[in-house]
Amino acid sequence: MDKNKILKLAKGISPWLSKVRKDFHMYPELGMQEFRTQRKICEYLDEFGILHKKMAKTGVVGEIKGKNALKTIALRADIDALPILEKNDVSYKSKNHGVMHACGHDAHTTILLGVAKILSEQKDELGVNIRFIFQPAEETVGGAEPMIEEGVLDGVDAIFGLHVSSLIEKGSVEYRYKQMNASSDNIEIEVQGQSAHGAYPGDGVDAIVITAQLITAMQTIVSRIDARDSAVLTIGKIAGGTAHNIIADSVKLTGTLRTLDPKVRELVKEKLDVLVNTLPISMGGNGILKIGKGYSALINDDKMVELVKKNAGDILGIENVLEKEKANMGVEDFGYYLEKIPGVFFNLGVKNEKKGIMASAHNEYFDIDEEALHLGVAIQILNVLSV
Ligand SMILES: [Zn+2]
Ligand SMILES: [Zn+2]
Asked: Which residues surround the ion ligand 2 when the cut-off is CB under 5 Å?
């Protein structure tokens, strides 16, 4: 299929895409609770004659087998919504009170179904197998991990994923070589001292004074790594002590570590471990560190980025294919797939200033210009056919 045919087919299903997206938008579901969404996806895949099965509780995977196919290419959409009360005054406003598709995963699901619909009708022309991954819980526990553990990538050669972006206009695409999103780890620290009368610090060990030193010292980890690397170490919460005139015996801190490079991630964790286990001891107290492993960094494969650049350029015009200057320090669990196989994640513009569609993701006024849906479908079809 050439690009003109693909674009024509994608444009042709625009009304269907809009209908499907509005339906998902009206019935958003939180991570690992996407039962209606899962049922609807299965119904559509049944309608297209695509074999599929449920995975990771609320996920779905389907596959179209190409003729004499030697490769299997995967496309992934995340399907979950957020705990946000929608404030848009639209006919398709969320009917699930306090839950909203404010990150555009309704659009991702719709685009992937659009690709499935078109390719199922062009089956005889396909020389590759196409695997359709509908993944739950991107916003919460990282549904990519259980999907991978259950074998969703078995036999897959490459993967494409996209995210809608209200930062760039409809009709544009944004790509980035290598790092696109940071890794994330949850930090929990307890500093233990010994309580005493506030007037007699010599009788105790002041956990608050130790904590003050510790927080300052932690920031020197970030400032003293290689200047060409980056890391964020944020302590977002601190709690300790009982009264103004008592030496605190315990302080608890929680925070987040973000890095763009797996090596830097390990280095900062090691340095943090040493610091928490030695600095409080040097002051007579004790430190306990727990690191909850979060999402991996999302690192694109350069050759796959080239494919997206070319294909998006063919559909949108090369002037509308933009290089993203800086990586996001926010996370995206598509990074788990890219730890296993080559792939690429890119942004699809859905902003439309004239229509007033410009609220950022995770905002109660988030919306998309639906005219971007068929463009996403066309680009993803070109992508899977070009590997
Ligand atoms: Zn999100
Ligand atoms: Zn998202």
From this structure: 103
Which pLDDT tens digit goes with each residue over 183-194?
999 999 999 999
Domain 183-293, CATH 3.40.30.10 — does that match?
no
- Grouping H, G, I as helix, E, B as strand and the rest as coil, residue 222 is helix
Please give the distance, rounded to the nearest whole angstrom, from the Cα atom of residue 112 to the centre of ligand 2: 15
Alpha-carbon gap, residue 64 to 74, rounded angstroms: 10
pLDDT grade for 99, boundaries at 50, 70 and 90: very high
CB atoms within 5 A of ion ligand 1 belong to 103
| CA dist., res. 277 & res. 279, Å (int) | 6
Banded pLDDT at 204 (limits 50, 70, 90): very high
Nearest ligand for residue 78 CA: 2
Which uninterrupted H or E stretch holds 125?
none
Tell me which ligand sits closest to the C-alpha of residue 334: 2
From the options 3.90.550.10, 3.30.390.10, 2.40.50.140, 3.40.630.10, give the CATH code of 3-181+297-386. 3.40.630.10
Which residues carry out catalysis?
Answer: 295, 370
Q: Are 75 and 143 a contacting pair, CB within 8 Å?
A: no
Give 361 Cα–ligand 1 centroid separation in angstroms: 7
Helix (H, G, I), strand (E, B) or coil at 322: strand
Give me the amino acid identity at 268: V
The domain ranges of the chain are: 3-181+297-386, 183-293
Q: How far is it, in rounded angstroms, from Cα 276 to Cα 286?
A: 8
How does 282-317 read in b/e, with b if 16+ C-beta sit within 10 Å? ebebbbebeeeebbbbbbbbeebbebbbebbbbbbe
The closest of 185, 180, 209, 207 to 194, measured between CA atoms, is 207
**Digit-coded pLDDT (tens) for 306-355:** 999 999 999 999 999 999 999 999 999 999 999 999 999 999 999 999 99
Of 87, 109, 114, nearest to 16 by C-alpha is: 114
> How much distance in Å is there from the Cα of 89 to the middle of ligand 2?
22
Under a CB-based contact definition with an 8 Å cutoff, are residues 170 and 320 in contact?
no
Q: Of the ligands numbered here, which is closest to the C-alpha atom of 348?
A: 2
Cβ burial 29-64 (10 Å sphere, 16+ → b, else e): bbbbbbeebbebbbebbeebebebeebbbbbbbbbb
